[in-house]
From TrEMBL:
Record lineage: Bacteria, Pseudomonadati, Bacteroidota, Saprospiria, Saprospirales
Pfam families reported for this sequence: ATPase_gene1
Protein's name according to its UniProt entry: AtpZ/AtpI family protein
Listed transmembrane segments: 20-43, 49-70
Organism: Neolewinella lacunae
InterPro entries: ATPase_put
Keywords: Membrane, Transmembrane, Transmembrane helix
Length: 74
């Protein structure tokens, strides 16, 4: 049986690993949404459109980010 200090250290390590995992998932979601939104802004400027591509690509980014996060979470 492990001493109390070692048990607490293992629990703290497990908690910090979870924190790192979930913060990484958040940055991944933000990155996907940001990249697709900026691609939409660029595409709208290049084609001279109203912000149609920005809206479509940003919503696609939200869906893709949620899909990626849920896939990693489950």
């Amino acid at each position: 049986m492990l001493p109390l200090d070692e048990k607490k250290q293992q629990e703290l390590r497990k908690g910090s690993r979870n924190w790192i995992k979930y913060s990484g998932m958040a940055f991944q979601m933000i990155g996907i949404i940001l990249i697709l939104t900026l691609a939409g802004v660029y595409l709208d400027r290049w084609l001279g459109w109203t912000p149609v591509a920005t809206v479509i690509l940003s919503l696609t980014g939200v869906v893709a980010g949620l899909y990626t996060a849920l896939k990693d979470f489950l």
